[in-house]
Amino acid sequence: MKARNIIQYLNKKQNYSFVYWNWPLIRRTCLCSMFSFMIVVLCTILVMIMTQPKNCDPHDNWRRTAMVYEIFPASFQDSNNDGIGDLNGITERLSYLKYLGVSHVRLNSIFTSSHYPDDFRNVDTFFKIDSTLGDMEDLRQLVDKIHLNNMSLILDLPISHPSYRIDQPSEWGRNHPNDTESVEEVLKFWLGHNVDGFYIKGVEQMQDDHDFSEKLAVWRSIMDQNGSKLLIASYHLVDDVASKYGHSSSRMQSIKQTFDLIDFRIHNLDNMTVEANRVSAAYDLMDERWIMWSLSNNDKQRISPGNTSAAGILLTFMLPGIPNIFYGEEIGLQNVQISNNIEEHMEQRHLFQFSPMYWRHYEDHKSGLIDFTSLTVVPWMAQAPVTNVDKFETVRAGFELRSHTPNIYMNGFCRKISFMKNFNVRYSDKSIIVVERIYPRKSPYIFVGNFGKEYRILDLSRRFSEGRVLLRISRRELFEEFNFHTIHLYPGEAYVIKLTY
């Protein structure tokens, strides 16, 4: 029975109707469909390429060429031969700042104090300039000259120094000893004198206030009503609020909406692994917001001698954000070193970062100035040594490179609706850090620096192939081509390389 069924099945006439299909039409249809699909894919790719930003300027174009130069006025330039720097001295030295590439001149506390500059932190009132520095007319002339040179003026506003910090958070804003000056009044007063922004110090002291977000919103409103002026705060505020209230908290969002820049100090140069983690964490936490990178400031001693300050400045140029140079860092100005009469200067030990500026590296033909003050005058603070005068032009070239390279001056890029980060720490150990900056359709830029005290040999050939040296802080004359297979790094040496693969 089973065999009979098989024979009957085999004897049935098979149906091969597909043989009679219109195969020429089918082939043409498939071919057209395939070409149409390829054209759609190609057009999609072209649209994606065309929509990538060709002009890589930041949303706020001023950030592209921004560099903040922090000045302690009493130590920058003495114009009246009393041994103490003043506002007129800064005015006379604006050509130097312009030559360096500075866009924002930042002044540490200029407010009247009982004993300025030794006790400059103990402010008597925020509405007056200390007479040692000058008067309101001197400030007006300085502001006018700064604006004439297409620069901006930023004032440090230390609203919560321990010497006059309020005890009751609910009373924040009435933080002066006589309890009559609010932050809002101070902002409005100096904005009325054409100041362009403020670094508000001590905001972290108010993070637990119930009206924290409302207070920041008022500050932002005041600044915007005067032409979108600049507000800066310390990263301590961001770090504290993120740790206590969370990265997505309303307080954190208020910080990001209020402040244009967040100041981050790179201070662990003796352990770059720790510092690389701190830098990466700050970059991730701030999203596409902007960071101001600092090495030294008026609150801390200057960084170690040698090439470290010049290499450190190049590092801040290569990080996503804006560099802040503390006066003299560009030439390796050090802390004051007192070997004799120590008892005489013991009370000034906390001010040893405020050495008078060294000027012999810059010949100012216009003003005719040579030194900080007259040779017959004793400066208020002893002169500290300088170590990197010969690196000044390299630092200046670093700023020029940054301002013309989207890989560097951008802190990320947009792809469709997503913000893509363009910064990576590719390698770090106790003394070495390697940073990569990328941008679509551009060759990557690499920073390699040795911030330790020992000579190092490094092999990065598994990460990079070859490149061309654009900037160097080095004691050696090297070829322009850079070999990543065997990198010799002396202490304080740093390189900026453009990959050529």
Automatic annotation (TrEMBL):
Biological process, per Gene Ontology: carbohydrate metabolic process
Glycosyl hydrolase family 13 catalytic domain sequence ranges: 70-373
Record's keyword annotation contains tRNA processing: no
Gene designation per UniProt: LOC103511930
Protein name: Neutral and basic amino acid transport protein rBAT-like
TM annotation in the entry: 30-50
Taxonomy, superkingdom: Eukaryota
UniProt KW keywords: Membrane, Transmembrane, Transmembrane helix
Organism expressing this protein natively: Diaphorina citri
Pfam families per UniProt: Alpha-amylase
Database matches in SUPFAM superfamilies: (Trans)glycosidases (SSF51445)
Keyword Transferase among record annotations: no
